[in-house]
Write a structure and sequence with these properties.
The protein has 367 residues and is of the alpha/beta class. It has ten helices and 14 strands. Strand 5 and strand 6 form a beta hairpin.
């Protein structure tokens, strides 16, 4: 009995397995393959789109070609042609062939520049704009022989430069009339040679304005009966003229030539022109007792101090006897002249440059 039951159960189990197998097979056959239905067409679309884009890019690329010759019209082989597009750091480079031809293919559209170079010939540049898909042929590129520019720098030796400066100083006049030879406006003046110092002294003492000024001072002296020992009349005037001129000449030569040569000092006034008013005033006032040596260093202005004292001492030789007071004459005359040079320096620093600028402007040709 038990064996029959077991046999019946095995039979039913087998039938159940067959039924499940049939049902699964039927379901698989009836279920659509979504993977094949959707995946394959999508992949094809992507491939087609990529191919279309590549074809579009290929259609937009263009080319640039041209020919290079020399001035005689002969073609040049081996010319370096460089292509650079705007906004890109990279460059393309090619060489011309035996016919002087060059070309660039697969060039993206947009602005570009060609640089054409060859040894011993001047470089040539060409700019243009490449349209999408365009085959651009440049005009005939003609390279010319490079122009050789030779720069010759001629530098004057110090003595020659000093001579040039002195000649410029000899043209300096206040309001175009009053000589202003002993002032330099050069920011880096070179030291004067001995002959230049004596030249300035000679030009200053023989200038027509100096002669007229001496005559005027002599006239005022006679009118005020200064140096009464000279008397009046023409003889008295001549003596006064000689005394005034003697003061001017001895002071100029001693303080502007003889002692500057012996002591190696510069007798000129060095215009400052910059900075606030106070240091400029101090610079002007100190110029009577401070100057530059021929070595460029600041020194005590022994030339001016001793020159003025010496001129006062020499005045004892030609002043009337009653006006000769020996050391007192030398001291008073020297101090007076030092004061004069200090006042003159103030004018040099603040007033004379303005009149000088106006005179120069008046001399310039009007448009």
């Amino acid at each position: 009995m038990d064996s029959k039951i077991q046999s019946h159960l095995r039979y039913n189990r087998t039938r159940l397995q067959l039924a499940l197998l049939i049902l699964f097979s039927t379901y698989s056959a009836l279920t659509p393959d979504f993977s094949s239905a959707y995946t394959e067409p999508r992949a094809q679309q992507i491939l087609d789109s990529s191919a279309n884009k590549q074809q579009s890019v290929q259609q937009q690329l263009g080319s640039i070609a041209g020919k290079v010759v020399d001035q005689s019209g002969a073609t040049i082989e081996g010319v370096v042609v460089t292509l650079k597009r705007d906004g890109e750091s990279s460059e393309l480079e090619t060489l011309t062939n035996g016919d002087g031809l060059f070309s660039f293919t697969s060039v993206e559209p947009g602005p570009f520049q060609l640089t054409i170079t060859y040894p011993s010939l001047a470089a040539l540049y060409f700019t243009g704009v490449l349209e999408p898909g365009q085959t651009l042929v440049t005009p005939l590129m003609m390279l010319k022989i490079a122009t050789v520019t030779t720069e010759v720098h001629v530098e004057l030796i110090p003595e020659e430069l000093a001579a040039v400066q002195v000649k410029e100083q000899e043209k300096q006049r206040i309001f175009g009339i009053v000589p202003n030879f002993y002032a330099t406006y050069d920011p880096s003046p070179v030291p004067l040679r001995a002959k230049h110092k004596f030249r300035l002294a000679w030009k200053s003492t023989t200038d027509p304005f100096t002669i007229l000024a001496v005559g005027a001072v002599a006239g005022f002296a006679q009118a005020g009966d200064r140096w009464s020992g000279y008397g009046q009349g023409a003889a008295g005037y001549a003596k006064r003229f000689g005394a005034v001129y003697g003061d001017v000449a001895t002071g100029t030569y001693l303080g502007g030539a003889v002692l500057p040569v012996l002591l190696k000092q510069d007798p000129r006034y060095f215009y400052k022109g910059t900075g606030s008013r106070r240091p400029r005033v101090l610079h002007a006032l100190m110029s009577s007792v401070v100057t530059k040596g021929d070595n460029g260093h600041t020194q005590v202005n022994y030339s001016n101090i001793l020159g003025n004292l010496g001129a006062g001492a020499l005045a004892n030789l030609y002043y009337p006897p009653e006006d000769r007071h020996g050391a007192r004459t030398a001291l008073t005359t020297g101090l007076f002249r030092l004061g004069q040079t200090a006042v003159a320096a103030i004018f040099q620093e603040f007033l004379i440059p303005k009149s000088r600028s106006r005179a120069q402007a008046a001399e310039e040709p009007q448009p």
